[in-house]
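G., the chain you wanted modeled:
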Amino acid sequence: MAERERIVVRQKELRRLHVIRKIEEGVLSNAETAEIVSLSERQIRG
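Predicted structure as tokens:
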């Protein structure tokens, strides 16, 4: 039987992942995303 790895993430990281998925789906703009995760638009564009 294969071992399962446990990944621990903080709530903040989980929220950012959710927001990134919304960007990929086209639901959020870069500006909206930047405001939600408290980063600049430039940081979002990467």
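The mean pLDDT is 88.

Shout if anything looks off.
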